[in-house]
Structure formats: structure tokens, C-alpha cells
Amino acid sequence: MKKLALNIIHRPELSPEYAERALGGVRDVRDESLDIFLFQQQSAHEQGLKTTIQITYASLFSDEIVAIAKQHHEQFGDEIGLSLLGLPCKQFREKYQTEDFCIWMFDEQTKMEIVDDCFKLFQDKFGFYPQSTGSYFLDAFTINYIKEKYPSIKCAVATCWEEGPKAYHTCNNSWYTFMDGGPWNPWIPSKVNSHCPAKSKSDDSGIVAIPHLSRDLMACFDGNGSNFGTHPQNVLRGMIYYRDGGSVEYPYLYNLIDQYRHLEKYNDGYSYNMVFVGPGWLNRAGRWEAPYELLAKSYKDCMAYYGRLKREGKLLDLTMSEFADFYRECHPDYNRGECALWKDILYGSDKEYFWYADPNMRACLDFNQGGAMVDLRPYVARLPQKTGIGTDNVYDASYPYLIQINYRAGYFTHYAGAGTIKSCRVSYHGKSADLCLCRTMARYEKIDGGVALIADPVTVTLDGLDVTIRSTFIFEEKSGRVITKREILNDLHGEEVTVEEYFTGAFGTTEYQADMTKLILGVGREKMNFTYHGKKIEKQNNGKPMSAFVTIPDVLTKVEMGGDVDKYKVEEGIAFSPVYHLSLTKTLTKGAVETWLKLSRVN
After folding, report:
1. Nearest to 151 by CA among 125, 122, 119, 127
2. Are 12 and 34 in contact (CB under 8 A)?
3. Total Cβ atoms within 10 A of residue 568
4. 469: exposed, middle or buried (C-beta count within 10 Å: 0-12, 13-18, 19+)?
5. Who contacts 526 (Cβ-Cβ below 8 Å, separation ≥6)?
6. In the chain, helix, strand, coil percent, each to 5?
7. How far apart are the C-alpha atoms of 224 and 171, rounded to whole Å?
8. pTM, 2 dp
9. Which are the contacts of 303, defined by CB distance < 8 A and separation ≥ 6?
10. Contact assessment for residue 435 and residue 372, using Cβ atoms and an 8 Å cutoff
């Protein structure tokens, strides 16, 4: 029987900054935080579940916490790791003379000093170096330094999925740290950029990275991720529960866990889930409009559900370092794509996303919009981003997008054609329809060299002519290509229709577009610089290999589109609509048009 791999991570925070400010007395907070940590540990142990105890910097000054961690390691097999969260405390502030507490936002020299400080103190207290560490985000510089200096490290919490402008806006524009664009599931980080999965042994940073939380891959992408995670207090924050008599029930939490279990269908039998809850989420003053009693109940119920799965032989509870070994055994091929065909489990609709990630790209297809590509990140570029004080990205550690429907709109825009998306238009007698308007569903197939998503056929009616189309999307592992096939299934009685596969792109990490004049657009050998004047290049197929392309120096990426088509076109946007367009068209009376999209790195 296939099993869900689970990490349960608890961190004792004796000086949680937000709790001190909200609750007052430091001593009261310390005592309560310790009680909550022990409650969390007990909730897991009662169900026969192992945990990873990530000791914070502040906790290393507590002999009581150190003794408890040692006891639980001996008694329950829990792992003792080192968290680079939980830095704020009297000792840290006095030593570093700062109120900052996010390690990725310090300058490089201070990052190294903090790492050495934490690891030395850990070794002094426990007599060994940890095998796991973590933070909300760990940049490549910090991971590389840790692995070189402390090679015992196998696993790290390295990013929090989709914590970008959406998270910023839902924190009243006060959460100055962006880190979206990374994988949603565990990955082996590249030495160059920790968001990118490693492409080879030489690119392997030496650790397995896990996300800070397991999120709902639809609700989190569309809205505030802090409401949609297998962290049970997230579900309460999202108010996703109901009262049944005197009891409170939260079936969504269990559905979300089961959705992650379901991902084994798309990943050669592998599935993963994690829980990472600091004590501040369970304080006795309540949190997110939920009283302590409900917070505690939700946590015990969550652990009970995992415990039941383990007793049924459906779950493998692993410490972080154990999971790192398990993951590498399951993923011997660096180029293997990670897949998630994700259904709506919150609102009951037929909406369906497909997520794909490999060393070349991260992409999302929305089958509620006919299989349109609504997110695309060029991992192939291996952007050597630095982050923190003294860099160009003090707080923005996000990996840039080429398409991002929430930050740069999509098909449904106020100004037609302004949104980033990859889709298809079908035209007949001057009438056209975009497949973004056609809701559908998809099925997954594993094929040689990649994976295929086959959408249910859709029908568009143009000037009285019905055209039934089936779309197939093939993600080729290793090549960085996505092949799209649009197949006409019905008899058109000799009538000609035009199929246009198009890509509307931009680049960035927020809603705001950087200067685009460095872009070069072209078809075949003809090129033009981006000038915001709406210029275009069009060429007919002359029988020679050709593609429509754009080169984007700021993200070291070239985007190409080609295939067996009649016409290639590129077009620049205007200042009011700072995007670019690539398109391929073919006229058919029957049969199919097959095109490809390829990402590659440019210097």
C-alpha cells in the first residue's frame, strides 16, 4: 500500500515577538509557550507519531527546553533540529543590535555570523550538530554556507509557498517579505537559487528542502494562503468550519490532507504532507477569532487523523532527516517532474488546476479556462538572486514570473489583451472565441519522457458553425518544452477555421512592471527591440525551421514558440499595456495543430 510521508515539526518559542507585544509580560509568555509546546508534543505522541523538534535560538538558553528535547528524543525517537526562526530574544538583540529577525534579510556577513552562533550554541547544548534546520525562507547563499560548514544538515524548511504580494496585501501591506514562485512540495534546491530544483549532481545543494506549510494549491493561489493549509489553525483563521450541535467540525482540513494523499497518483506513488505550528498559534488568549478550546481541539483532532492513517498503514511518520533520505530514494532522477492535478475541495465547483515543476520551469494550467497557462516561472534561467541588506532584493526574494494571472491579470481584463496568459483562439468568418471561455476538466497520463494532460473536448459556435476541440498538453522532462495539441473532432464539412496559439507575457515578482526596453522580439532571423509602440513582426511559414521568440535579459530567459503552422507573429505592447505577444496560427478543415513552447537560459 502506498503511504503518505509526513513531517510533524514543533518549535518551542520562549520569546515569540508577536505574542510578547500582544500579551504583555515576558514571563507569562515564556511559561505559556512552553506549556503549548508540550501540549503539541503530547498530541502527536498520544497518536504514536514522531516529531522533529526545531530548537530556536532563544530556546537554546533554556536548560528546561534542552532537557525536554533530549528526553523526547530518547523516549519517542523525535529528532532535535535547529530552527533559524525564533531569533528574537534579549540575547540576540543585545549581540546583534537589531530588531530584525528574518535571517534571509540580513547582509551576508551577518547571515554567516548568525548561522555559526546558532550552530555552535546547539552543539554546546546537545553535543552534536543537527541534521535539519529551517526558516520561512533560506536563500542559496545561506544553504550553501550551512552545508559547507555543517555537512550533517540533510533537510531544511526553505520557503513558504505563494507568500508574495497576496500575503502582503492581506497583512495590511505590512509583511515586508516576498518569497513566492517556489515549489509547493519537497525539492532538492539548486546551488544557484534555492527556489529552483537542482538539475544535476553538480547543481545539488546537498540538502532536501521542504515547504513551510502544505497549502491548498487552488485556494492559496487564488487568495490568501494563510487561510488554507494543513496547519489546522490556518483552517480556523479561514473560518472553514461549522458547528454541529455542541461540536465544531472541519471536514475541509481532512479533505485537504486527503488531497495531498491523492497526489501519489501523479507522482509514481509518492505523496507528502507536513505540519509546522509554532506555539503562538495556540495561546490561551485565542487567535483568529477562535477561543483556545477550539484551537486546542483542532490540533488534537488533526493529530488523531494522522494517527488513524498510520494505524491503517496509510502513513509514514518521518523526522526531517529521515524524510531527506526517503525523498532521495524516491527521486533518483533530478529531471523528474512534480505534478499535482488539483481539484476544488473548498467551494464544491468543478474548477481544476494542474501544477508542474521540474528544473526547467514551474507552470500552472487552469482547466476552468480551457487549460490556459496561468503561471509560469523560468527555473531554467537559474537566476543568481541575492537577497537581504546590501542587495537589490532586501525583502523581495520571489522567483520571477513570465505569466502570473493574479498579479498581471489574464484573459478577463479591463483592457482587452493586457493580461498575461497562454491560450488559444479559434476563428471563423471574422468571429472568434478564446478557449479561456470554455470550462473543462482533464485527465493525467504518464508517458515516456514526461506527462500528458488530456482535456475533455469543448465546443465553440462561430457564425453558426460548431467546432469541437480536444486539447492535449505534454510536459517534456529534461527539454524545457511544453507541447500543445489542438485537435478538431467533428466534421466541418470543408469549412476552414483558424487556430491561433498565443502567449501574452511579462516578467517580475509584483504587479508592477519593470522597464521592458531591454527585450528583443523576433521571428526567425528578424528581430526588433521593445519600444512600447505596438510594433509587430509577421512571417509566413517558408518550410524552414522557425520560431517566434522573446529574449528577456532581466530574467536571463528566452521564450520560443514553434510548430507546424502557417504564420508566426510577435508584437510589443504599449506603455498602458506593458506586455509582449507571441502567436502561431494555422488554418484547418480537419485534423490538428501541434505547437511547442520552450524556455531556455540566455546570458
Report:
1. 119
2. yes
3. 25
4. buried
5. 537, 539
6. 30, 35, 40
7. 10
8. 0.96
9. 8, 43, 44, 46, 47, 49
10. yes
* Parallel, antiparallel or unpaired: strands 372-377 and 361-366: antiparallel
List, as one string, the DSSP characters of 360-371. Answer: TEEEEEEGGGTT
The residue behind cell 523525535 is 78
Grid coordinates given for 74: 530518547
Grid coordinates standing for 410? 489574464
Instruction: List residues bridging with 376 in a β-sheet.
Output: 363, 403
Percent of the chain surpassing pLDDT 70: 97
pLDDT at position 30 over 80: no
Of 321, 226, 362, 333, the C-alpha closest to 281 is: 226
Containing 315, the helix (H) or strand (E) segment is strand 315-317
- Answer for the pair 13, 34: CB distance below 8 angstroms, yes or no: no
Instruction: Identify the H or E element spanning 63.
Output: helix 63-76
Residue 1's pLDDT band, with cuts at 50, 70 and 90, is low
Which distant-in-sequence residues (6+ apart) come within 8 Å of 9 by Cβ? 51, 52, 54, 81, 134, 157, 274, 275, 276, 277, 320
- The C-alpha atoms of residue 428 and residue 323 are separated, in whole angstroms, by 55
What digits encode the pLDDT tens for the residues 235-281?
998 999 999 888 999 999 999 999 999 999 999 999 999 999 888 88
Query: Are 258 and 309 within 8 A, CB to CB?
Result: no
- Scanning the structure block, which residue is given the C-alpha cell 457564425? 463
Q: For residue 592, what are the CA distances in angstroms to 279, 471, 489, 566?
A: 57, 10, 9, 13
Q: How confident is the model over 470-490, as pLDDT tens digits?
A: 999 999 999 989 999 999 999
In one-letter notation, the amino acid at residue 299 is: Y
Q: How confident is the model over 409-452, as pLDDT tens digits?
A: 999 887 777 899 999 999 999 999 999 999 999 999 999 999 99
CA nearest to 553, candidates 598, 505, 511, 601: 601
Report CA-CA distances (Å) from 264 to 329, 341, 444: 15, 11, 12
Q: Which residue has the cell 518551542?
A: 12
Average pLDDT value for residue range 84-102 = 92
Phi/psi of residue 211, nearest 5 degrees: -75, 160
Place of cell 509526513: 6
Q: What is the 3-state secondary structure (H, E, C) of 82-130?
A: EECCCCCCHHHHHHHCCCCCCHHHCCHHHHHHHHHHHHHHHHHHHCCCC
Distance CA 449, CA 475 (A): 8
Q: Which grid cell sits at 121?
A: 550554541
CA distances from 265 to 6, 101, 338, 445, 491 (A): 17, 40, 11, 10, 35
Q: Which residues pair with 171 in a beta bridge?
A: none
How many helices and strands, by DSSP H and E, does the chain display? 12, 31
Q: Got the DSSP string for 142-168?
A: HHHHHHHH-TT--EEEEE-TT-SHHHH
Q: Do 399 and 182 meet the contact criterion of CB atoms below 8 Å apart? A: yes
Helix (H, G, I), strand (E, B) or coil at 373: strand
Residues counted in the chain: 603
| The three cell numbers locating residue 456 | 475533455
State the cell numbers at 157. Answer: 524548511
C-alpha–C-alpha distance, residues 226 and 215, integer Å: 9
Cell of 479: 527539454
Residue 226: enclosing H or E segment and its boundaries? none
